[in-house]
Amino acid sequence: MDAAACEVEPPGAWRFARVGVTTAAVGVLVATMLWSATRSSSAGMIGVDVALAVTALILVPVVIRRPRTGGVLAGVLVALSPVATPVASFAVLFLARNRPFRQAAAVAAVSVAGEAVQAFWRPVPSLPYGWRLVLMTIAYAALFGWGTWAQARNALLAELRDRARRAEREQERRVDEARAAERGRIAREMHDVLAHRLSLLAAAAGAMEYRPDAPPERLSAAAGVIRASAHHALDELREVITLLRSDDAESPTDAPPGQTLADLPSLLHEARAAGQRIEVDDPLGPPVEIPAAVGRTAYRIAQEALTNARKHAAGQPVRLVLGGAPGTGLRIAVSNPTTPDGGATGSAGTGLIGLAERAALTGGRVTHHVDATGRFHLTAWLPWPT
Q1: Quick one: pLDDT at residue 15?
Q2: Alpha-carbon span 207 to 221, nearest angstrom
Q3: pLDDT surpasses 90 at 381
Q4: Domains of the chain from N-terminus onward
Q5: Which burial class, exposed, middle or buried, applies to 116 when counting CB atoms under 10 A from its CB (0-12, 13-18, 19+)?
Q6: What residues form DSSP beta bridges with 377?
Q7: 3-state secondary structure the chain
């Protein structure tokens, strides 16, 4: 860390520094009085100790502003007089708590070296040189270890707080993504329904256009289909727009009740009422117990297949085959002859892509192809647990 970086104090450094300044000042004054009263042999040495004590106190702000420089200077003063020991101790603790390990270790080493020099030329008769050096080394090591532990603890707490904030943001992001995905799924669901309604409306209108001489009751029935389909299409379109425009995070995103295979007869009745010819081979018979997700997917596959037949093979008969059993899966096969122009309405194939994705979500698959005779085949397999 360079000198410029040292100018920026970490959070809590000033609060710690205030306590340290007070402690160091009191320590310097007490050390000066005790040492000068009991150990100095001349007035000159007393004056030197007082001057060094004042210098040590001046160094305290330097330690706070420029810890490495102030700590080294305090260690040098220790070599001259013990009155600088409190400031050097504060410097070691301050650096160990707020600065990198190497800086704190270097200042601690300088302070220990200063204590060694001081003990050599200003000995204490009652304390051997070796023991004094050992005790001072242990004291500085304790301060260094305490400060390093405090810095590691603060860093750990800061990291844990940061992780908690990141986890909260990640959770919020996941919720937003889940909400967006759910809204997209509902919109796709409603798109399928809306496309079905509009295709019924187009088929009924086409029948009226090409058979204006049809009996009045047939024209009335076709008009009824158009009216009902348009009414339902408007309602469903309103639901889609409301859903996609809603930005309220608390707004409900539950999907409307989806149709299942039990609603297949109603779907077939609507399609036949619009003039579509449908042949059904359903060995499953009456409604059976099928998982809700599988039943909804099966219904959407049949609905999309009939819609595609009306759009791209208008007037052609459609064959729908259902089969399967619990444990082996549910099979759906829809086929119809194709027309040379592919129908009056173009398509980008997004409906079939959506069906494949929908089936994959339930663990199933959808395939489609046109055989050599020009007949379009759509085949789906969906899991059916026992």
Answers
A1: 55
A2: 11
A3: yes
A4: 3-122 (no CATH), 262-386 (3.30.565.10)
A5: middle
A6: 335, 369
A7: CCHHHHCCCCCCHHHHHHHHHHHHHHHHHHHHHHHHHHCCCCHHHHHHHHHHHHHHHHHHHHHHHCHHHHHHHHHHHHHHCHHHHHHHHHHHHHHHHHCCHHHHHHHHHHHHHHHHHHHHHCCECCECHHHHHHHHHHHHHHHHHHHHHHHHHHHHHHHHHHHHHHHHHHHHHHHHHHHHHHHHHHHHHHHHHHHHHHHHHHHHHHHHHHCCCCCHHHHHHHHHHHHHHHHHHHHHHHHHHHHHHCCCCCCCCCCCCCCCHHHHHHHHHHHHHCCCCEEEECCCCCCCCCCHHHHHHHHHHHHHHHHHHHHHCCCCCEEEEEEEECCCEEEEEEEEECCCCCCCCCCCCHHHHHHHHHHHHCCCEEEEEECCCCEEEEEEEECCCC
**Which amino acid, residue 37?**
A
Contact between 52 and 118 (Cβ < 8 Å): no
> How far is 17 from 64, CA to CA, in rounded Å?
7
For residue 112, give both structure tokens: 């220990």
Q: Of 62-76, 79-93, 203-217, which gets the smallest average pLDDT?
A: 203-217
Average pLDDT over residues 188-196: 66
Decide which of 19 and 367 is more confident: 367
Supply the pLDDT for residue 134: 93
CA-angle at 312, arms to 321 and 293, nearest 5°: 45
Local confidence band at 338 (pLDDT 50, 70, 90 cut-offs) = confident
Convert the pLDDT of each residue in 128-181 to its tens digit. Answer: 999 989 998 998 999 899 989 988 998 999 999 999 999 888 888 887 776 677
Distance CA 279, CA 56 (A): 102
C-beta atoms surrounding 96 within 10 Å = 26
Between strands 329-337 and 365-370, the pairing is unpaired
- Can you read off the two tokens belonging to residue 262? 């039990």
Please tell me which residue, 255 or 172, carries the higher pLDDT value. Answer: 172
